[in-house]
Amino acid sequence: MSEESIAAAVHRRWRLRLAIAVVLMALGALASTAISAGYGESLVVPVLLWVGVVCIVMAWRSVPHGVRDSERPAMARSAIWTVLGLLAYVVGPLLVSRF
């Protein structure tokens, strides 16, 4: 396999995984929003879930087109957005439920 085909495969695989995560997280955020609105509860947790979804979308958009050294800043941006998204989606609601 050539370097170009490896880079394309990594790009496709990472974007596909992030797209699946976006869909699943958005479904969870939508359900949480509907339940919170239906019962008249605070919308703090659904907002945090949607912030997490937006961060993962940003990670999806910043996935580099390859794995070359010149793509390292884009890899770092994508990783940072992924971590921020997971923090907002998982840790944020846990902290809200504690306090």
Poorly predicted segments: none
Quaternary structure classification: single chain
SS-based structural class?
Answer: mainly alpha
- The residue-averaged pLDDT reads 91
* Percent in strands: under 5%
Count of strand segments: 0
Question: How far do the termini sit from each other?
Answer: 53 Å
Main sheet makeup:
none
**Helical residue percent band:** over 70%
| Element-by-element helix/strand order | HHH
H/I helix tally:
3
Shape: elongated
Radius of gyration, in Å, reads: 16 Å
Structure description:
- By secondary structure, the chain is an all-alpha fold.
- It is 83% helix and 0% strand.
What keywords describe this structure?
99 residues, elongated
Question: Brief description of this entry?
Answer:
This protein has 99 residues and is mainly α.
Task: List strands and helices in order, with pairings.
Layout: H1 3-39, H2 44-61, H3 72-98
Helix pairs in contact: 1-2, 2-3
